[in-house]
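Hey, quick one: can you model this chain's 3D structure?
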Amino acid sequence: MMKKEFWLERWQRAEIGFHQDEVNPHLPRYWPELKQQGCLVFVPLCGKSLDMLWLRDQGNTLLGVELSEIAVRDFFQQQGKSPAREVAGKFHCCEADGIRVLCGDFFDLNKTEVAQVKAVYDRASLVALPPEMRQRYARHLAGILSPATQILLVTFDYPQEEMAGPPFAVSADEVRALYGRYAEIRLLQREDVLEQNPRFVQRGVTRMEESIFLLTLR
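Sure thing. Here's the predicted structure for all 218 residues.
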């Protein structure tokens, strides 16, 4: 079981290779596939992702959840914002310019806190979790969201024995096994991305595919 301390230490040591310094190219390409636009978008395990700014600029409001106070602080500092702060249940909340980030444990979220959410963007959440946590994650996410909520999900798949995650390998079959009972699943894109990820080649990975799914909760 991967413990909270793993991620907190990664942020403390600035070992955040998972952070992207630009908007993920899949986001503007595939976000229009969602029926829900101009709504409250939930970004689990959001870090300091610039994708939240892109989503906000499309007319959405954002709700993120992030374990690391360092990530939350850096996100708003890098935008030159001094967020309003409050305690909300088990979370410390920071909010500015249409982006609200709850600092705390994703698994502490309840239905009330995400009641207005209509869409979810998961680029770095599911793939950040080891196998024994992914089922719990999918069950909890589906359990707190309303029916008809749509999820844009990005996953990697590679021979897991060639590299220790994160990011972990998540196959299309596993996505169907995790979410099939909760959602309609549509594969939007699958592509070979090994050449674009030389750091994984250096770690010995011989095959890597990235897939984009659209899930619609029942």
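One thing worth noting: The helical segments are 4-12, 26-30, 51-57, 69-78, 131-144, 172-179, 198-202.
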